[in-house]
Amino acid sequence: MPDSEFALETFLPYLLNQAAEASSLAFQQVYKDRYGMLRTEWRVLFHLGLYGSMTASEIGQRARMHKTKISRAVNRLSKRRFVERVRDDVDRRVEHLSLTVKGRAAYQDLRQTAERYEAQLLAPFTVKEVALLRQALGKLTNTPPDFFT
Amino acid sequence: MPDSEFALETFLPYLLNQAAEASSLAFQQVYKDRYGMLRTEWRVLFHLGLYGSMTASEIGQRARMHKTKISRAVNRLSKRRFVERVRDDVDRRVEHLSLTVKGRAAYQDLRQTAERYEAQLLAPFTVKEVALLRQALGKLTNTPPDFFT
DNA sequence: GTGTAATAGTCGTGTTTGTAACTAACAAGC
DNA sequence: GCTTGTTAGTTACAAACACGACTATTACAC
Predict the structure, then answer these.
(1) Span A8-142 CATH architecture
(2) What is the per-residue pLDDT across A64-123, written as a single tens digit (0 to 9) for each?
(3) Which fold is adopted by the domain B8-113?
(4) What ranges do the domains of chain A cover?
(5) Among partner residues B2, B47, B125, which is closest to A136 by beta-carbon distance?
(6) Contact B18 A139 (CB under 8 A)
(7) Searching chain A, which residue's CA lies closest to the CA of residue B62?
(8) Distances (CA, A) of A50 to A23, A101, A111, A146
């Protein structure tokens, strides 16, 4: 009765999801416990920490997040004084976002933690393997299959 | 102001999430459009298609899904007659789940689609790269970092 | 100027999820 | 028998998400 020609365990999207979930779990705990942040908020924080001042839609493009997600994340972050919003004088639709001192501190802390965390994740692999893995993941992200059968 | 020592674009959990999302998207559309299924339901369907009759908790262990997720997925699947539930005579807490004819048809269809889909995803890679990728993802899934700093 | 389209960001509502509490059935000790 | 603990699965409620509709502002055409 069982059908073993096609193994779910090797189906790539499934594997990717499992790995993504497993590798996010422990770190998720960190930013949640220390700063009460959600993943969306942590991503916004990181983008601002990395690139300095950005607008919501710039973050959206880089992070491939929907603007409603960003809007809400920014809202929460600014309510807790991690993020500062400054309206653009010229185009008053636009808001320039940047980290407050508190936000920068959180970012620094989480960034360091992330580095150490990643080192643990990558420990079982060789340098070459890591490079290949990163490259492959990038390719998979940027080559969406045009699939409508 | 920006800080480029640590690039978010290379942070592994981030990459994994992006790749997982991108590679799931198109296929998600398929089982959603054709059968109105959610990812959880698709997973349950696939496990039952692959392994034949299983209980909810067996699926949970294999798929690393929480039992409430499975409970709801099975509920929806059985309401739409994709899945049949039979209570165990000996241990009446247990339910044996299996696919109906309709469920098996959906499974066959989606399985074939999944195969072709995966072939597209893997097209840009060599056989060796694919093997390494699968192996790496497996390792990442099964080596949860013990991280509580 | 007026009208139309586009863009930045927010809000509202239904859906899905996560967490914990719950019921029902079994098991083991006494 | 009667307790205590464990397991299978469900339910309840709050948190998070997706999606579309919405406001406000700018841009462009005429």
Answers:
(1) Orthogonal Bundle (1.10)
(2) 999 999 999 999 999 999 999 999 999 999 999 999 999 999 999 999 999 999 999 999
(3) Arc Repressor Mutant, subunit A (1.10.10)
(4) 8-142
(5) B125
(6) no
(7) A9
(8) 21, 14, 10, 32
